[in-house]
C-alpha cells in the first residue's frame, strides 16, 4: 500500500515507530499529486520543495531524539483563504492572484508548532462564495469519485485533496456549509467547529460572524487530532472563546448507548432526495440498533434560515470585501482616470460574478431605508433559530440530518441558476447561524456511485459528542468510511 | 432684520494612549511614514481588530467629566466608505449606541456661565493621511495614523455666537488636558472640529437649515468659519433665497467655504454592528472608579473662583489652567491668613516670573503654602512692605527658614514707631526745603518725592503710610 493511502493517525504511528520517514510520506503525497492533479485540480499552489525541506527538518529532529507532537511530519494542505506567510494566498480570485501575506494565520502558527508539513494551497469558490468550487478564478476542481461531478464548495479543493490522497488532512472554512457540503460530496469527514473555538485570525473574511475554520480527514481520529491542534483561545481574535478544551477521544461501537439523537423533521423535507433520506435514516437505525434513542424533533424556523443566511452573510461580505480596492495590494486595473475610476475598474475586473452578486445583495440590505426590513429582521430570525436549537438540545444529545439534499451534481449543472445553487446549503446554514459545531460523515453511496453525507449537530463546544457519535458509526461500519478515490 | 446664529460642534480628539485602538502599534506622532503600522492597522486580508481597553477608559473619563450617562452595554459599528486613507474601506466607530450621551458642560463667556449640552461621545479609529509629492504624479498614503484612537464629542446646537463656540472649544480642550487623555496639539491634528451653523430670525425658536463645515483646523478658524457662514446664510435669506442643507469645506487661508456635497449626495455609510468585536460591557465598579478619579475641572474651578473669591475671569483662568498653581492658591487660602486677591497676584506675578526665569514648573520651586501665607499676612498687616516682601521671598528660595525668621535676622521689620519715624522725617524736611516750598506752592506731587526720600533714609523699612502722615502734619505745622 502506498503511504498516501494511510490515515494521518496511522501515518503518525508509523513515523513515531520510524517505520517510514516524513520525507517518504511527503514524497508519496507529492507523487500522488503529480499523478492525479490533472484530473482532480484540487491545488492552486503546490509547495513541493518547501514541503520536502520541512519534512527533512522534522525527520532530523525526530532522529535527534526530540519528542514531537502527534501530527509532526504529516503532510497537510490548506484552503487558499487561510494566510500563509510567504506563500501566495489567492482566495481563488483574480483580485488576490499574486497576494503573498506577510504573516501567518493563527491556525498556521499552530500547525507549524505541531510540526505538520504543508504541501500546498487548495482551490475554492472565489472568496468562499459558492457550493461547487466552480466560481474559482483559476480552475474547476473535480470530484475524485467521478470527475464529471463537482466536489462541492466552497472548500472543494480541501475535500477533493483528502478524498484523492493528495493530503492526509486539510483545512477548510465553513460559513454556511463550505466544509460539510464538499465533505459529503467527496466522501470524507469534515468538521465545522463551534463559532469561537478556532481562531479566525488570518482567515480572509467572508462573513465574520459565521466563518469558522475546520479540518477534513479520512477517519474520525484524523479530524479530532487536527481539530485538537488548531482549537483554543487566540488573543488576536476578539470573537475567540477563552476556555479550556478537553482531550478529545474517538467513540467506539458501544458509545452511543442511551444517547438521544434528535431527528428534526424539517430537515427531511426541504427537497431532500429519497436516496439521501434513506441513507441517513439507515445510519440513524444503526445508531438505534446499538443503543441510541431516536427522537423526532421540530425546528420550525428552519425554512427561513436560508434567507436569513444570505442576508447576514452578504451584508458582512459587502463590507469585508470593500478593502480590495486596488490601492494597497492585489489586483489594480492598469489604466484609470481618477480615484472613482480606479475603484470601479479594479473591482469590476478583479471580482467574479458570484462575488459581485453577493456584494450587491449585501450593499442593498444594509442601505438606509432597507436595513430594518432585511438585516435587522434576519438578525431577529437568527435569535429565534438559536433559541429553537437550545430548546431542542435540552432533550437531545445530538441532532442527525442529511448534509446535502442530494449527492454531488454535474459540473456546470447549476452554474447558471444561483438560487438552486444556494438551496444546496439548506441543511447546513442553520448550524452557522446558531454558531454550533457539526460534522459531516459519509453514510454510504447513492446508486450513481457518489457518496452521501449525514450531518451530526451538537450544542456549542460539544465537539466531543460529534467525535463520539462519528467514531461509533465508523466502528460499526465494516468498510473503511472514506477510502481514497481510485483515479 | 436681526438674525441669531445657532451653532453645534463636533470635536474629534486623538487620545494619548500608548498603543493604537485595535492593534499593538505605538500611538506616536512624527515618525517616518509607514513605520508605525502593521498588518492589522493597514487592513491586510484576514487580520482582525482587538479593542484597546484604555481607549474605553479614557472615553468614559471624558464622559464622566461632561456629566454624561455612560452606556455600560454598547457596541461598535462599521461605517463603510471608500477612500485611500481608509485601508479596510470601513471605519470602526459607534453608531446608535455611543459610549456616553446626554451630558453638558458649563462654559464662561464674558464672566457669565453658559451650559452647553453634549449629545454624545463615541470612540472610533482615525484614518491615515494622503501625501502629495512633486516627484510622483499620484498621491501617496501614510498609514501611521490609521487606528489612532479618537473620541468624537458632539454638542447640542446650544451656542449662539462665535464667542460661545470658542469658549466651548477652549473648555473642551482644557478638560482633555486636565484629564491627561489627549495632547490637544492643533498643529499635529490631534484635535479637530466640524462646525454646524444655521441662522434664525432673532426671537424665533424655529431653527433654520444648517450647513456643516469640514476642515476647520483651529479654534480661531472656527470663529472665522462661523462668522463667514452666518453672514453667507443671512445674505442668501435677505436676497429671498433658501438655505440648502449641505456640507462645505472651510478654506482658512482664503477665509471662505465652498460647497462639498449636498444633502442628496450625502453618503450612505451602511452602518452595521462590527462582527469582529464583542459587545462592550462595563461594570458599575469600572465606571464608578473612573467617576471618582475625576478632579475638579478647570471650568468648574474658574466659576468657583469668580463666585467665592471675586477674582477676575482672566486671573481665575490663569490659575485654573495650571493644576499646580490652582493647588497652591487653594492651600495658601486654607491657612486663612491672607486675601484671595493678594495670593492670586503673587502666584500670577512674582512666582510666575520666577518660573519663567528658571524655566521650571511650580513644583520645582518647592514653595510651602504655610510660608507663603505667613509672608503675605506680614505684608497685608504692614509688618513689612511689599518691596521687602519680595526680598524675603527671594531669600526663602535659598534657605529653609520661615519668613518670620528671615525678617527678624535681617532686621527687615517695618518701622512703625512714631518717634523713630519722626527723626527721619525731620532730617528729610531739613535737607529738602525746596520741595517743601514747591508743595506749599501747589505742586502736590512733591509729596511723593518726599515720601520716597523718607523711604530711602529708612533703608526701605519705614512704614510709608505713617511717614506720609507725619510729613503732611509737619509741613502744615511749620
Describe the structure.
The complex is a heterodimer of chains A (487) and B (478). With 487 residues, chain A is α/β, with parallel strands linked by helices. In chain A, 38% of the residues lie in helices and 13% in strands. Chain A has a domain at 3-255 and 438-453 and 462-476: Alpha-Beta Complex (Amidase signature (AS) enzymes), CATH 3.90.1300. Chain A contains 15 helices and 11 strands. The longest helix of chain A has 21 residues, at 372-392. The model of chain A has no long low-confidence stretch (mean pLDDT 96). Chain B is an alpha+beta fold and 478 residues long. Chain B folds into 3 domains: 3-291, no CATH class; 297-409, no CATH class; 418-477, Arc Repressor Mutant, subunit A, CATH 1.10.10.410. Helices cover 41% and strands 20% of the residues of chain B. Chain B is built from 16 helices and 16 strands. Chain B has helices spanning 53-65, 162-178, 219-238, 284-293, 298-309, 313-321, 323-334, 340-358, 362-365, 369-381, 386-398, 403-409, 418-431, 433-440, 446-457, 464-477; strands spanning 3-14, 69-70, 73-74, 77-80, 90-93, 100-109, 112-125, 129-132, 139-142, 149-155, 191-201, 211-216, 246-251, 256-262, 272-273, 280-281. In chain B, the strands form 4 sheets. In chain B, strands 2-6-7-10-1-11-12-13-14 form a 9-stranded mixed β-sheet. Chain B has a 3-stranded antiparallel β-sheet with strand order 5-4-15, with no helix packed on it. In chain B, strands 3-16 form a two-stranded antiparallel sheet. In chain B, β12 (211-216), α3 and β13 form a beta-alpha-beta unit. In chain B, α2 (162-178) packs antiparallel against α3 and α10 runs antiparallel to α11 (386-398). Chain B starts with a strand and ends with a helix. The model of chain B has no long low-confidence stretch (mean pLDDT 91). The chains are: A alpha/beta (487), B alpha+beta (478). The interface between A and B is large, with 44 and 28 residues.
